[in-house]
Amino acid sequence: MGKNAGRHAGRSRPGAAAGRAGAYSRTLHLEDGDPHPGWSFEEIQTELLQLGDRWKNMRGLMRADLGVSPGPAAADA
After folding, report:
1. CA 77 and chain centroid, separation
2. Would residue 72 be called left, alpha or beta, if left means φ above 0 and alpha means ψ between -120 and 50 degrees?
3. What whole-number distance in Å separates Cα of residue 42 and Cα of residue 61?
4. Strand runs (DSSP E) across 18-66, as ranges?
C-alpha cells in the first residue's frame, strides 16, 4: 500500500469514476505506485487535456446561450 493510501479510502475503483475526479484518482494511484490497469501517465495527461478542451467548448456554449461575450477563455482556445 502506498504512502498516501488514505487519500484513496472509500473511492470507487476504475471505471466508476468519470471526468476530472476519475483522472485525479488515477493520478494519485499512479503516484503511489499502484496505477489503475491501462492508465499510464501519458494516458492520464491526454484525458485531462481532452477534458480541458471539452470544458472550454461547454463554457462557450453556455455563455452564448446566455447571450454574453465569450470572455477571456475563448481567446486561449
Report:
1. 18
2. alpha
3. 29
4. none
Judged on CB neighbours under 10 Å (0-12, 13-18, 19+), 69 is: exposed
- Reading the block at residue 28, the C-alpha cell is 494519485
How far apart are alpha carbons 40 and 26 in whole angstroms? 9
Rounded to whole angstroms, the Cα distance separating 55 from 47 reads 12
Supply the pTM of this predicted model: 0.57
pLDDT digits (tens, 9 = 90+) for 13-56: 343 346 777 888 888 998 899 888 888 889 888 988 988 899 89
Total of domains in the chain: 1
Which grid cell is 37? 490497469
Expressed as residue numbers, the domain containing 68 is 5-76
